[in-house]
Protein backbone atom coordinates (compact mmCIF):
# COMPACT_ATOMS: atom_id res chain seq x y z
CA UNK A 1 0.00 0.00 0.00
CA UNK A 2 1.16 3.54 -0.79
CA UNK A 3 1.16 5.25 2.58
CA UNK A 4 2.43 8.67 1.48
CA UNK A 5 1.19 11.02 -1.20
CA UNK A 6 3.11 14.28 -1.54
CA UNK A 7 2.54 17.13 -3.91
CA UNK A 8 5.59 18.43 -5.74
CA UNK A 9 6.58 20.48 -8.76
CA UNK A 10 7.12 17.70 -11.31
CA UNK A 11 5.11 18.25 -14.48
CA UNK A 12 1.73 16.51 -14.48
CA UNK A 13 0.04 15.02 -17.52
CA UNK A 14 -3.47 15.61 -16.18
CA UNK A 15 -4.88 19.07 -15.55
CA UNK A 16 -7.87 19.60 -13.25
CA UNK A 17 -10.05 22.70 -13.42
CA UNK A 18 -12.25 23.54 -10.42
CA UNK A 19 -15.19 25.93 -10.28
CA UNK A 20 -18.00 26.63 -7.80
CA UNK A 21 -21.50 27.59 -8.90
CA UNK A 22 -24.83 27.56 -7.09
CA UNK A 23 -23.71 25.29 -4.30
CA UNK A 24 -21.79 22.80 -6.41
CA UNK A 25 -18.11 22.20 -6.98
CA UNK A 26 -17.37 21.13 -10.55
CA UNK A 27 -14.08 19.43 -11.38
CA UNK A 28 -13.13 18.95 -15.02
CA UNK A 29 -10.18 16.75 -16.00
CA UNK A 30 -8.19 16.78 -19.23
CA UNK A 31 -4.86 15.30 -20.21
CA UNK A 32 -2.11 17.08 -22.15
CA UNK A 33 -3.89 16.25 -25.41
CA UNK A 34 -7.20 17.65 -24.22
CA UNK A 35 -8.70 14.19 -23.80
CA UNK A 36 -10.53 12.81 -20.78
CA UNK A 37 -8.15 10.67 -18.67
CA UNK A 38 -9.17 7.29 -17.31
CA UNK A 39 -8.99 7.10 -13.52
CA UNK A 40 -8.26 4.14 -11.29
CA UNK A 41 -9.88 3.57 -7.92
CA UNK A 42 -7.77 4.61 -4.93
CA UNK A 43 -8.94 3.80 -1.41
CA UNK A 44 -12.39 2.80 -2.64
CA UNK A 45 -13.04 6.05 -4.54
CA UNK A 46 -12.26 7.35 -8.02
CA UNK A 47 -11.55 10.83 -6.65
CA UNK A 48 -10.73 12.33 -3.27
CA UNK A 49 -11.34 16.07 -3.10
CA UNK A 50 -9.80 18.02 -0.22
CA UNK A 51 -11.14 21.54 0.35
CA UNK A 52 -9.71 23.89 2.98
CA UNK A 53 -10.51 27.52 3.78
CA UNK A 54 -7.86 30.24 3.63
CA UNK A 55 -7.55 30.37 7.43
CA UNK A 56 -7.30 26.54 7.51
CA UNK A 57 -10.26 26.33 9.89
CA UNK A 58 -12.65 24.59 7.47
CA UNK A 59 -11.75 21.20 6.06
CA UNK A 60 -13.73 18.87 3.80
CA UNK A 61 -12.81 15.44 2.40
CA UNK A 62 -15.24 14.81 -0.44
CA UNK A 63 -15.88 12.24 -3.16
CA UNK A 64 -17.45 13.91 -6.21
CA UNK A 65 -19.88 12.13 -8.51
CA UNK A 66 -18.77 11.19 -12.01
CA UNK A 67 -20.98 13.17 -14.39
CA UNK A 68 -19.29 11.89 -17.54
CA UNK A 69 -17.06 13.53 -20.13
CA UNK A 70 -14.34 14.21 -17.56
CA UNK A 71 -16.61 16.21 -15.24
CA UNK A 72 -17.23 15.50 -11.57
CA UNK A 73 -19.67 17.26 -9.26
CA UNK A 74 -20.04 17.70 -5.51
CA UNK A 75 -22.85 19.55 -3.76
CA UNK A 76 -21.53 21.55 -0.82
CA UNK A 77 -22.47 24.83 0.86
CA UNK A 78 -19.32 26.95 1.05
CA UNK A 79 -19.31 30.40 2.67
CA UNK A 80 -17.90 33.39 0.81
CA UNK A 81 -14.13 33.43 0.95
CA UNK A 82 -10.97 31.87 -0.43
CA UNK A 83 -10.26 28.15 -0.58
CA UNK A 84 -7.57 25.74 -1.67
CA UNK A 85 -8.77 22.62 -3.45
CA UNK A 86 -6.66 19.48 -3.89
CA UNK A 87 -7.82 16.96 -6.50
CA UNK A 88 -6.39 13.61 -5.39
CA UNK A 89 -6.70 11.11 -8.25
CA UNK A 90 -4.84 8.19 -9.81
CA UNK A 91 -4.92 8.54 -13.63
CA UNK A 92 -4.24 5.38 -15.60
CA UNK A 93 -0.84 5.41 -17.38
CA UNK A 94 -0.33 9.16 -16.82
CA UNK A 95 1.82 11.14 -14.39
CA UNK A 96 -0.10 13.22 -11.92
CA UNK A 97 0.92 15.23 -8.89
CA UNK A 98 -1.51 16.95 -6.56
CA UNK A 99 -1.20 20.73 -6.58
CA UNK A 100 -3.38 23.38 -4.91
CA UNK A 101 -6.12 25.07 -6.92
CA UNK A 102 -7.21 28.43 -5.52
CA UNK A 103 -10.89 29.34 -5.80
CA UNK A 104 -12.65 32.48 -4.63
CA UNK A 105 -16.34 32.52 -3.70
CA UNK A 106 -18.56 35.59 -3.43
CA UNK A 107 -16.30 38.04 -5.18
CA UNK A 108 -13.67 37.97 -2.45
CA UNK A 109 -10.10 38.79 -3.38
CA UNK A 110 -7.74 35.87 -3.78
CA UNK A 111 -5.40 36.34 -0.86
CA UNK A 112 -2.20 34.42 -0.26
CA UNK A 113 -3.18 32.33 2.78
CA UNK A 114 -1.00 34.32 5.17
CA UNK A 115 -1.56 32.35 8.35
CA UNK A 116 0.41 32.36 11.59
CA UNK A 117 -0.22 28.94 13.01
CA UNK A 118 0.61 28.21 16.64
CA UNK A 119 1.74 24.69 17.49
CA UNK A 120 -0.48 22.66 19.78
CA UNK A 121 0.78 22.05 23.29
CA UNK A 122 -1.95 19.54 24.06
CA UNK A 123 -2.05 16.60 21.68
CA UNK A 124 -5.15 15.02 23.20
CA UNK A 125 -8.35 15.96 21.36
CA UNK A 126 -11.96 15.12 22.23
CA UNK A 127 -14.66 15.58 19.59
CA UNK A 128 -18.23 14.27 19.85
CA UNK A 129 -17.25 12.41 23.01
CA UNK A 130 -14.43 10.49 21.31
CA UNK A 131 -10.85 11.12 22.45
CA UNK A 132 -7.68 10.67 20.41
CA UNK A 133 -4.10 11.26 21.60
CA UNK A 134 -1.20 11.94 19.23
CA UNK A 135 2.21 10.57 20.17
CA UNK A 136 5.39 11.20 18.19
CA UNK A 137 9.06 10.84 19.02
CA UNK A 138 10.49 13.54 16.78
CA UNK A 139 9.39 16.07 14.18
CA UNK A 140 12.57 16.96 12.32
CA UNK A 141 13.00 17.96 8.70
CA UNK A 142 14.25 15.33 6.22
CA UNK A 143 13.72 12.49 8.71
CA UNK A 144 10.98 9.91 8.92
CA UNK A 145 8.29 11.17 11.27
CA UNK A 146 5.96 8.69 12.95
CA UNK A 147 2.50 9.66 14.19
CA UNK A 148 1.02 7.15 16.61
CA UNK A 149 -2.62 7.81 17.49
CA UNK A 150 -4.09 6.33 20.65
CA UNK A 151 -7.86 6.11 20.19
CA UNK A 152 -9.51 6.03 23.62
CA UNK A 153 -12.51 3.83 24.42
CA UNK A 154 -13.24 2.95 20.80
CA UNK A 155 -11.89 0.79 18.01
CA UNK A 156 -11.34 2.53 14.66
CA UNK A 157 -13.44 1.02 11.89
CA UNK A 158 -12.25 0.59 8.30
CA UNK A 159 -12.91 3.78 6.36
CA UNK A 160 -12.10 4.10 2.66
CA UNK A 161 -9.92 1.01 2.83
CA UNK A 162 -7.85 2.03 5.85
CA UNK A 163 -8.09 2.54 9.62
CA UNK A 164 -7.59 6.27 9.17
CA UNK A 165 -6.47 9.09 6.94
CA UNK A 166 -4.10 12.01 7.59
CA UNK A 167 -3.95 15.15 5.44
CA UNK A 168 -1.25 17.76 6.10
CA UNK A 169 -0.61 21.21 4.65
CA UNK A 170 1.68 24.13 5.44
CA UNK A 171 0.68 27.62 6.64
CA UNK A 172 -0.05 28.88 3.14
CA UNK A 173 -1.93 25.83 1.91
CA UNK A 174 0.57 24.93 -0.80
CA UNK A 175 1.89 21.58 0.37
CA UNK A 176 -0.26 18.46 0.30
CA UNK A 177 0.61 15.28 2.17
CA UNK A 178 -1.95 12.46 2.30
CA UNK A 179 -0.87 9.60 4.56
CA UNK A 180 -2.39 6.22 5.32
CA UNK A 181 -1.60 3.80 8.16
CA UNK A 182 1.50 1.64 7.95
CA UNK A 183 -0.57 -1.49 8.60
CA UNK A 184 -4.17 -2.65 8.58
CA UNK A 185 -4.18 -3.19 12.34
CA UNK A 186 -2.57 -0.09 13.87
CA UNK A 187 -3.25 3.65 13.69
CA UNK A 188 0.41 4.46 13.06
CA UNK A 189 1.34 6.78 10.20
CA UNK A 190 4.73 7.71 8.77
CA UNK A 191 5.78 10.60 6.55
CA UNK A 192 8.64 13.03 5.92
CA UNK A 193 8.86 16.83 5.70
CA UNK A 194 11.27 18.60 3.37
CA UNK A 195 10.91 22.04 4.99
CA UNK A 196 10.86 23.35 8.53
CA UNK A 197 7.82 25.24 9.70
CA UNK A 198 4.27 25.04 11.01
CA UNK A 199 1.83 22.53 9.56
CA UNK A 200 -1.90 21.90 9.95
CA UNK A 201 -2.91 18.27 10.13
CA UNK A 202 -6.36 16.71 9.93
CA UNK A 203 -6.79 13.13 11.12
CA UNK A 204 -9.88 11.16 10.11
CA UNK A 205 -11.16 8.15 12.02
CA UNK A 206 -14.44 6.28 11.77
CA UNK A 207 -15.55 5.64 15.34
CA UNK A 208 -18.83 3.97 16.26
CA UNK A 209 -20.14 4.54 12.75
CA UNK A 210 -19.23 8.24 12.58
CA UNK A 211 -16.32 9.81 10.69
CA UNK A 212 -14.64 12.33 13.02
CA UNK A 213 -11.93 14.78 11.94
CA UNK A 214 -9.30 15.77 14.53
CA UNK A 215 -7.24 18.91 13.76
CA UNK A 216 -3.66 19.33 15.00
CA UNK A 217 -1.03 22.03 14.50
CA UNK A 218 2.56 20.79 14.59
CA UNK A 219 5.98 22.37 14.19
CA UNK A 220 8.71 20.67 12.18
CA UNK A 221 12.21 21.64 13.31
From TrEMBL:
This is Secreted protein.
Amino acid sequence: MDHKHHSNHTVSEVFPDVSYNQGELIIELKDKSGKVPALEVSHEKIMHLIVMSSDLSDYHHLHPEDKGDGKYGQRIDLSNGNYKVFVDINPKDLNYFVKPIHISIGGTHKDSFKNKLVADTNFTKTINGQTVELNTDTMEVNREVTFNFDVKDATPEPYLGALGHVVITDEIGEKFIHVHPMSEKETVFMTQFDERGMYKMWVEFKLKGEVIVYPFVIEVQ
